[in-house]
Amino acid sequence: MQSSNHRLRDMEQHHPLLSASGDVEAGGLGAGVIMGSTHNGHTGVNRSLWFIQDGCGMVCATITWFLVLYAEFVVNFVMLLPAKSFWYSLLNGAAFNSLAVLALASHLRTMLTDPGAVPKGNATKEYMESLQLKPGEVIYKCPKCCSIKPERAHHCSICKRCIRKMDHHCPWVNNCVGEKNQRFFVLFTMYIALISAHALGLSGMHFFTCIKTQWNECSNFSPGVSVLLLIFLCLEAILFLTFTAVMFGTQIHSICNDETEIERLKNEKPTWERRVRWDGMKAVFGGPPSFLWCNPFTGLRLRRLIFLTYSRRSGSEFSV
């Protein structure tokens, strides 16, 4: 019988793998429930580079980079470099390009960080015996990736893995947003919203300046080309600002309420001890409030990117 103190959710099938007495049938590791004390199946820190080989996600991630680089081109070469004020160009250029670098770095960290994947295929007879399961306690096994399913984990059909505290799968970062990379996704949405607002402000100033003077004097491009580039930039900035601002607010709300988007949509009643408001923020961003919360380079180890090994390859992601 399932213990109320160890009740896990989101299982498509509920077939017992271990009886209440702890007996394990040979070859009986089909989809279903594992009886015993709750374990998350985590076998240590994965030090490999995470990347999802999804066609749609890779296209969306490429489009994201292209649009950010396009915004940098228009801001720098159409608006700032031709400006007559040196300090106006310097200060706005430094601010915009710094925010753009932080946005792209946050995007890379979100895309290349393991979101909290549960080890695939760890629901074996040997592993069950090593857990020293207690009779009457229940854990679950995912029927799709054949792994022990921790509490609050959900299976992603694109990543083909169970993800701890999975919020959603975002094609724009070609990855799931989960326990280990949510902070980078929040930073990505924040920095994209900031550079979008900055680009809109610069575009408005540029239009106002060029209307007062001659277009040929305020841009190195012809008036027609300049107008087209600025109009497209404004449309892009409005779209990105709206989307990322809403997403940023949604993520902060989820963190402060310790509830993922999937849990909210499914209206799941919490069986865990909630860490709300600042406790939730500290759990996601790590430590007390500081400027490190806004730094997407925190914890980055260059050695992991320099020394590449291809010793593991599994599912739709590869390890480097």
From TrEMBL:
Domain statement: The DHHC domain is required for palmitoyltransferase activity.
Membrane-topology descriptor: Multi-pass membrane protein
Protein name according to UniProt: Palmitoyltransferase
Membrane-spanning parts: 56-80, 86-105, 184-207, 227-248
GO cellular component: membrane
GO molecular function: protein-cysteine S-palmitoyltransferase activity
Chemical reaction(s) catalysed: L-cysteinyl-[protein] + hexadecanoyl-CoA = S-hexadecanoyl-L-cysteinyl-[protein] + CoA
EC number: 2.3.1.225
Compartments, as annotated in UniProt: Membrane
Keyword terms of this UniProt record: Acyltransferase, Membrane, Transferase, Transmembrane, Transmembrane helix
Protein family according to the UniProt entry: Belongs to the DHHC palmitoyltransferase family.
Enzyme type, top EC level: transferase
Pfam families with a match to the protein in the record: DHHC (PF01529)
Domain Palmitoyltransferase DHHC: 141-267
Source taxon at top rank: Eukaryota
Entry-linked InterPro entries: Palmitoyltrfase_DHHC (IPR001594), PFA4/ZDH16/20/ERF2-like (IPR039859)
